[in-house]
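Lab notebook, bench 4. The sequencing result for the construct came back, and we need a structural model before the next group meeting so we can plan mutations. Quick request posted to the team channel:

Model the 3D structure of this chain.
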Amino acid sequence: MARTIRVSLTALALLFVGDAVRADHHERAEPEAASATGATAFAIGDEGMAVAADPRAVDAALRVLREGGSATDAAIAAQMVLALVEPQSSGIGGGGFLVRRDGATGDVHTLDGRETAPAGAGPDLFLDAAATPLPFFEAVAGGLSVGVPGLMHMLQTAHTKFGHRPWDTLFEPALALARDGFVVQPRLHSLLTRARHVGRDPDARAYFFDVDGNPRPVGHRLQNPKLFQTLQRLALDGGTALYHGEIAQAIARKVNLDPERPGTLSVSDFERYSSRFREPVCGTYRAYRVCGMGPPSSGATTVLAILGMLETFDLGSMDPETAEPWHLFAEASRLAYADRDRYVADPDVVPVPTAGLVNPGYLTQRSRGIDPDAAAPGPAVPGEPPGAPSGQRDGRSSEQPSTTHLSVVDSAGNAVALTSSIETAFGSGLMVEGFLLNNQLTDFAFVPKRPDGLVANRVAAGKRPRSSMAPTIVTDADGRLRAVLGSPGGSRIICYVAQAIVLSVDWKLDAASVVSFPHICNRGRTTEIEADTRFAALEQPLSAMGHTVAARSMTSGLNVILVGADGKLSGAADPRREGIAGVP
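Done. Here's the predicted structure in token form:
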């Protein structure tokens, strides 16, 4: 079972500079029990660790680690459980990105399992007969929004290269839960009360709701025999079995026969799909090296852009409870998002100036536009990073926050940061063979062309939509692992991850303090602060500096592992969700 340790935040040591915490007591969390108390769940260890959004997923990962599995093995086992117990966020009908660091060599690998648009998709996919963009949630529900799922291909590829345990054994925890049932937790029930599009599909309605149309209640034991059969097939035949034969045919049929918004997904689209290793995008912040996933994810480039601009300011000398450093953070994120919106898309289809976006000289020049005392007026204007293509225009998309992240370190020091998603809560709302299908195509820009040029993130056949997922690994100047982190949260993921790094590096906060700290983000116009937190005290001083401030719900799901100077691991799960951290 997953072991968690709960102590007060003030009892925690400063992990980036000192020894790891010694715990006074241990709690044994049953795999069925979610951490719904609102307290931050965290753990201390030195022989491996897993942090994920659900205790049952952590339990699966720890079982694999105890059996000698690698961090990659453990991540796969945890993800299979999340596909079952957290269906609103991720699953085999979606995609993701995986960042892995080799404990022996320090090499970082990044693997792209992002969905692709079908061959029948074009730039007008989400335009009506009058060339007007569809309302977002009208585009979400149904087959039109479904891309070729990439998660299973990515996990199979990762296992082939980095796995230690037999592939089929990694499915055992998820298979047991699918067969015997799992207890519905508060978050799943709560989201079902608000996700109206889920009930339009007969298969999803029968699974998630009772005969009277009420969501399955908290505590209900939910069995999924269809997913049990699907997982059995994938366990025996490999992850690529999803891309050939009966499963691919069933998905394509479901998408094409959707009665309201059918799509064009075909079996040949599945056969052409491939996850791929891409060059990691790395940069430095203070004395640390930060590495993450490059395009089609905008995660690493934008996180590094925020950090690169902030590096010119001495944040550590400022009080993190005051407006001063967060004014700077908001201004840096504002500029970074402007570049993201203009330049980042699928690099296999459009030119992306990846190196230029994280170029230290360029970011230093961008930071000169930040006034320490006042917010810049008006919307942020993109810069011109080295290698920037001409003729590209901004293309915003409405990326939704239904995503999951897990962080794993094994006893050999291998580390995996895995972020996966089906996009909106419950994806497209279509269910097939026991799992939900994504709506990731709505991560494309709906308007393909502006008066002065094409939008980089426009829809195109075979193209991967831009993402904000930002699985990240941090090392120190000597190449030692220092942090493994990531978060769900739609396009705010970038702010959540960048802020976590700043809190860890500049103020030496421990993992539990990092994941529970109030959020702030500026995605180009409004400075958003997390509602109902102590950051309410910043609204007036930020407004006085010229910020347009809005208090909003910012339900991150940061799952963080920090490594102390003595090599001790400390992990924490975001108290805004139901996750825990555990050690083998």
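The chain has a mean pLDDT of 92.
Will bring this to the meeting.
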